[in-house]
């Protein structure tokens, strides 16, 4: 479990990149939900935390692939593989992320640290 | 409509086929390609693939679950189009008739005259080009890159990381002078220099020296640059010569309206070969960026399937490109040609981390980001939303 930050430190509409291997992106939607997914787009190396958040959908800042933050599914190409999702808990008004033990779908040629 | 022929089997051709199916067309689809390979992604050819970080198998553009039900005719280029019957003839004699033709024949690398037969001289457009170049990028070799555009800049950065001794020669005053203007192009000059790549701007190439194999590049000022390998990255030429007798209007590319229709009913064009009417510029403008090849086919297909297209008056987004050079991601959207000023609004040139806005008078017409993906994305969105004036 990663304790990310106080909920109040991530206003609705904002995103945060968490250094992990691989990195994680945490989103606070305008509707008040918090989601965590792998930060690196499954298509090519770009940080989804820098992308455009609309509803529960994140658009990659490089090629505009879209992912559904609830499921990780690809909503728009060029990405072909879903983004891995992580479980978010709010504990003591802190955002906590429970990392998935599924394999990440990192883009070709991208590796992070020893785990990937 | 019962049959659509797509001439071109790269990004724009594939996305045309996908758009046809996504938009409900259930007739026959034929895709013609001059290369034997199924559609593959070209941007990594100058970066990750050239660096040996990825192999050809991951470049494929199709997904396992694509169900295009298309007939692929690969390995023979189209040589003519009959405007009355829309029949396409291939070099191997195959004739394909259909109700509509979408042209996506792309562009090819411009060559330096008289250098094709010289070993060690490369251009970079196809996967074969990239594989051939990759085999010669050996540590310690001397590489001269002619042209500091997208290909030249990316090849220089990749080769430098592989341990080559790299010199870039650019005829204009700075790298990327056309797409970014010379003021921001100068920032890219600094990027090359900061990474230990020698840059010679404002000087042309007189000739490539060598018999059988390249030995040096001679510049017009007399300088002789010894070279083991040369990459020529001096732009691309649209593949439209096969249409000269077709009646399709050709300028710098295939002249189209704002949704890809040519003047011939049932004939459209997308991707690098197409010059769509740009409402912001008030004229046709050929865009050879990856994103245009990906986004515009859906607009063209909507125009094709919607008859006169009046009900689906989607506009193409402003041109957008990215280029990864060294540890910097360059992103640009808009039209430099419209601008009369450019201002750095975030970051600084010497840090290679900046956001610059191009304006005509007070009106933003373009935005450049270097390692500023988040801010750049917001600006690009605003520019796309702005109504052309």
UniProtKB/TrEMBL annotation, chain A:
The GO terms describing molecular function are: 2 iron, 2 sulfur cluster binding; dioxygenase activity; metal ion binding; monooxygenase activity; oxidoreductase activity, acting on paired donors, with incorporation or reduction of molecular oxygen
Pfam families membership: Rieske
Keyword Iron included in the entry's annotation: yes
Record key words, sorted: 2Fe-2S, Dioxygenase, Iron, Iron-sulfur, Metal-binding, Oxidoreductase
The protein's matches in InterPro entries, at most eight in alphabetical order, are given as:
Rieske_2Fe-2S (IPR017941), Rieske_2Fe-2S_sf (IPR036922)
Span of domain Rieske: 2-97
Q: Which Gene3D superfamilies match?
A: Rieske [2Fe-2S] iron-sulphur domain (2.102.10.10)
Identify this protein by name.
Bifunctional 3-phenylpropionate/cinnamic acid dioxygenase ferredoxin subunit
From TrEMBL, chain B:
Which UniProt key words apply to this protein? FAD, Flavoprotein, Oxidoreductase
Span of domain FAD/NAD(P)-binding? 4-294
Ranges for domain Reductase C-terminal come to 320-387
**UniProt GO cellular component terms:** cytoplasm
Q: Which Pfam families match?
A: Pyr_redox_2 (PF07992), Reductase_C (PF14759)
> Per its Swiss-Prot or TrEMBL entry, what cofactor is needed?
FAD
**Record carries keyword Oxidoreductase:** yes
Which top-rank group of organisms is this from? Bacteria
- Signal peptide range in chain numbering: none
UniProt keyword Oxidoreductase present? yes
Q: Which GO terms describe its molecular function?
A: oxidoreductase activity, acting on NAD(P)H
- What SUPFAM superfamilies does this protein map onto? FAD/NAD(P)-binding domain, FAD/NAD-linked reductases, dimerisation (C-terminal) domain
UniProt protein name:
FAD-dependent oxidoreductase
Organism of origin is Kribbella turkmenica
